[in-house]
Amino acid sequence: MIAYEDAVARIAALALPLGSEHVPFERAAGRTLAAPVIARSSVPAQNVSAMDGYAVRDADTHAVPFNLPVCGESFAGSDPSIDLTPGTACRIFTGAPVPEGADRVIVQECIERDGDIARVVRAFGPGRHIREVGSDFQKGDILLPVGHRLDWRSMTTAAAADRKDVEVYHAPRLVILATGDELAAPGQAYERAGAIPESISFGIQSLAQDSGARILRSLRLPDDRDILRPAAIAALADADLIVVIGGASVGEKDYSREMFGEGLDYVFPRVAIKPGKPVWLAKAGERLVLGLPGNPTSALVTARLFLAPLLAGLSGRDPLSALAFEPRRCLDALPETGDRETFLRAQRTHTGVKLAVSQDSSSQMTLAHSNVLIRREAGAPAVVPGADVTVLDF
After folding, report:
1. Is 307 helix (H, G, I), strand (E, B) or coil?
2. Per-residue confidence (pLDDT) for residue 51, from 0 to 100
3. For residue 252, how far is the Cα from the chain centroid?
4. Are 279 and 271 in contact (CB under 8 A)?
5. Distance between CA 391 and CA 328 in Å, rounded?
6. Using omega within 30 degrees of 0 as the cis cutoff, is the peptide bond preceding 309 cis?
7. Are 277 and 1 in contact (CB under 8 A)?
8. Whole-angstrom distance, CA of residue 275 vs CA of residue 337
9. pLDDT for res 136
10. 3-state secondary structure 90-146
11. Cβ of 334: how many Cβ atoms within 10 Å?
12. CA-based Rg of the chain, rounded to a whole angstrom?
């Protein structure tokens, strides 16, 4: 059994990217860049109007009111090489090329139109309302660096580089194996005495997808060696990472380690944390196997602490970026901890964090309302309400 920090350090050293591929933008969301996104052209490519109005030369403006004949129009997508004849104005729209020679755009609210005459009737102020060429970014600029995950905002930035695709790291392929004779599909457990709804795999699958994994399959398996062993062999053939739920302790039917045969090379066999001490990580050839406890809270806490950084690293990001602890004010008193580092479920509020009603490792009711984990070092003394604590998004 090792300390939590040691386990994290081993994950950080182990969780390396799985290679890269070029994908079109339709399949790039959520992926991590393996090469920078570089602008093909400057944006804007020419001076464009920031407002609807009239493009004019400063030399042709006078004390309000004054008139200018309208010589033409410029729309977004128009020929950018048009010239503005001295002594005239050009009707222009947002995003349209500014005619050569124009110094400013007078917004349409300051102008009254009378046929081909633009009559400036209101003071238009000092603003030029022109977006200059390259004012957003210039040709050759790095818009997004290697290691950046393409979220809904940066997808727009990446596409603006005018490239047909992006180079991203492979999404880690994941197989989830939930084990236990007592497990039944949600909606079926009530039909069999002693059965319980298998709930953990759904949370693990959601976390894994949010962390960049590609789920190959999620299976519900009984505690039967003849079924577990073939499932493990198939998972090792297909996946980069296998998550086994349950069977992680030393009970008579705890087969989660045994199902992978004698070839497991442990990264860590247990971790000195509460909840989740039975969590384990091993290499099986070039594959990784993460064993999570069968109690729901223990499984989700350990998945957040170990699966999230594993998937971050395998996806091309810094594994430690998934473990951004920060200080917060705790609204409740906290007891002293024992000989294991402890992670308490809590809820973030506008005034601080408040402990979940139940800290039991099997509790499921409070999971939906717990959105942070309070980290308490082993042997930490009791604290009073209002003390600062260290928390992690949960």
Report:
1. helix
2. 97
3. 40
4. yes
5. 7
6. no
7. yes
8. 12
9. 97
10. EEECCCCECCECCCEEEEHHHEEEECCEEEECCCCCCCCCEECCCCCECCCCEEECC
11. 20
12. 30
Predicted confidence at residue 251, as pLDDT, reads: 60
pLDDT tens track for 364-376: 999 999 999 999 9
Q: Which two tokens stand for residue 342?
A: 């402890």
pLDDT in tens, 279-288: 999 999 999 9
Nearest to 302 by CA among 326, 327, 323: 323
Q: Judging by beta carbons within 10 Å of its beta carbon (0-12, 13-18, 19+), is residue 329 exposed, middle or buried? A: middle
To the nearest 10°, report the CA torsion of 62, 63, 64, 65.
-70
Helix, strand, coil content of the chain in percent (nearest 5): 20, 30, 45
User: Distance between CA 161 and CA 140 in Å, rounded?
Assistant: 9
DSSP 200: H
Tracing tokens 């182990």 back to the chain, one arrives at: 14
For the record, the structure tokens of 321 come out as: 């970026």
The CA angle 176-180-183, to the nearest 5 degrees, is 90
Q: Cα separations (Å) of 18 from 170, 236, 308, 365?
A: 6, 15, 16, 37
Residue 80: predicted pLDDT: 85
* Residue 349: count of CB within 10 angstroms of its CB: 12
The DSSP code for 304 is I
Comparing CA positions, the residue from 278, 286, 273 lying closest to residue 237 is: 286
Structure tokens at 300: 């989700």
Q: What is the pTM of this model?
A: 0.89
Residue in the structure block whose two tokens are 């609204």: 331
Sole residue written with tokens 């970014």 = 137
What is the set of domains in the chain, with CATH numbers?
4-16+170-322 (3.40.980.10), 20-43+148-168 (3.90.105), 48-131 (2.170.190.11), 326-393 (2.40.340.10)
Q: Report how far residue 247's alpha carbon sits from residue 257's, in angstroms, rounded to the nearest whole number.
A: 8
pLDDT beneath 50: ranges in the chain = none
- Looking up tokens 């490239």 gives 163
Burial status of residue 24 (CB atoms within 10 A of its CB: 0-12, 13-18, 19 or more): exposed
Locate 268 and state its tokens. 């860590």
Residue 11's SS3 state is helix
Residue type, 311: L
Q: Give the pLDDT confidence score for residue 250 in this predicted structure.
A: 59
> What phi, psi does 258 have (nearest 5°)?
-60, -30
